[in-house]
Design a protein that fits this description.
By secondary structure, this protein is of the alpha+beta class. It has 1 helix and 7 strands. The chain is about 15% helix and about 35% strand.
């Protein structure tokens, strides 16, 4: 792992963003949910895992822009003909958008995403860094 002096600041930024979305989302009465996420970095890739139970793959949109991965989706409630009186309703429905800052530069064009048992796993290969090269000076 390479030392990054801004890594702690990025983590604080993510925590602050999550807090603001949670606080102001509830204040505006937004429906929906915020899926939990894990970001892991290996030597050759970055893996993002997100819990999205009940969200079909055709309702998930994934994009990468300026070192930020954004996953958007929608979890719809199946409508039923008869009315029900709920005694408890904890399942969150609606649309969501979750953005996370990636710990390394990635090649988004080679990314792969799999959805299995409600877990979305996105593998993003790290971008190849240009190797240092020697440049010979010619005498003119």
């Amino acid at each position: 792992t390479h030392w990054n002096p801004f890594r702690a600041l990025e983590r604080r930024e993510d925590v602050f963003d999550d807090f603001m979305r949670e606080f102001f989302g509830k204040a505006r009465g937004e429906e929906g949910f915020m899926p939990p996420v894990e970001v892991a970095e290996a030597e050759k890739d970055v893996t993002v895992t997100m819990a999205v139970p009940g969200v079909p793959k055709d309702k998930i949109d994934i994009s990468v822009d300026d070192h930020v991965l954004t996953v958007r989706g929608e979890h719809r409630k199946e409508s039923e003909e008869k009315k029900q009186d709920y005694h408890r309703q904890e399942i969150r429905y609606g649309s969501f958008a979750r953005s996370v800052r990636l710990p390394a530069e990635v090649d988004a064009g080679k990314a792969e995403a799999d959805l299995k048992d409600g877990m979305l796993k996105i593998r993003l290969p790290k971008a190849a860094n240009p190797k240092a090269q020697q440049i010979k000076v010619k005498a003119i």
